[in-house]
Amino acid sequence: MRAEGDRIHATAGQMEELEETIEMLTEVLAALAKQFTTIWLPIQLGLIVLAALIAWGVAVLLRKRLDLTAITLGWPPLLRTFVRTLAGHLGTTTFIMLVLLMRIAMQAMTAPSRAYLLGVAASLATAWVVIGVLASLIRNKFVYRVVSISAWTIAALSILGLLEPTTAALDSVAIAIGGLRVTPLLALKTVALLLITLWAATAASNFLDKRVRNVSDLTPSIQVLLGKLIRIALITFAVLIVLSSVGIDFSALALFSGAVGVGVGFGLQKIVSNLVSGIILLADKSIKPGDVITVGDSFGWVDTMGARYTSVVSRDGREFLIPNEDFVTQKVVNWSHSNDRVRLDIKFGVSYASDPHVVRKLALEAAATVPRVLAAPGPSCHLQAFGDSSLDFLLRFWIRDPADGLAGVRSAVMLALWDSFKRERIEIPYPVRNLHLGNPVRVVVERGDTGQS
Length: 453
Prior knowledge:
By secondary structure, the chain is an alpha+beta fold. Helix 2 packs antiparallel against helix 5, helix 5 packs antiparallel against helix 6 and helix 9 packs antiparallel against helix 10. The protein contains 15 helices and ten strands.
């Protein structure tokens, strides 16, 4: 019974607030309607239109005469953005000055109340310019538009005296979710604060990430890890601040947090696995940006390491987005993990008529002529086996730049071998097959009739 009484009392209170809001709006609308019954209203509207046309013409003329891009070239970025934004509102600024002059003239010739609309127009235009200039510091276009329109709407309602009635109307309608009273005003405040705080958190994390990447004492993997942790911490902190500022009790979100936990356990297990695997990779430094790796059939160098995947760029320009979990659960070949030297092998064979000592010497000299082959440790050549039709050799050499590709250096060494063998008349044998027939084969050739006329 007590709960029912409290509910009825709360409903009655909301109805009273709604009736008061409607009454205030009625009074404001009546005051505005009274202005339309006088001759001074069309006069003010005509002056406003005249000021707008003159301001538009002045702005077009000045933009043709002034080249702001050339004038502001070399200025500090912040000052350059400020000046260009102010120039973009040149027409509005001219309109404000003209309207203010007209308002001063009308106040001097007649009653001040008859220039009310001019004052409102000047105030609205001034608010638009100030908000536009301040919001130009926001680089994100979507956030810039949302902040500009929202701020100007609030300023316009305040100038017109409708801010308090509007907020009261938005706050009069509510839905109770547990112990939380959700109103349209609360939703709008939460969305606006979230946009602003998330933009600020992202801008701060980008700034700090650039500073961390400039610290040469940290390895690339630690730099990426610190950047990710800073971003996550700032975004989490921004969300918590917004929820606390709008009066949301975190205990009311226990049901939602439980549902999120179940979703993470079942539906998001792969995402969580990749996220944890990414943190492990950054912490143990097994893979870092710039490493040359092979994962399965994918060969290339690590470009970026994200929260869910790692970008591996191949020599042909393709970019493989490999889940971080694969680097933990599969076999990974890191060609530059502990050092950047890589040994390559080339197998070849020569005929039995060749001197193996000369062949070995020529192979070493040919490998040494390739610029990418290291002199220390130098190339080595070994006679591996006496094959069916050739002497089989193994040529080994080292390179220090696997990121530039392996096929190119192999091809260069093999071409150098070919040139050396041709010059010294050393043959590279190819298999010869002799066909022996046990029984004679009879071949019958049939000729068709040739027509004669």
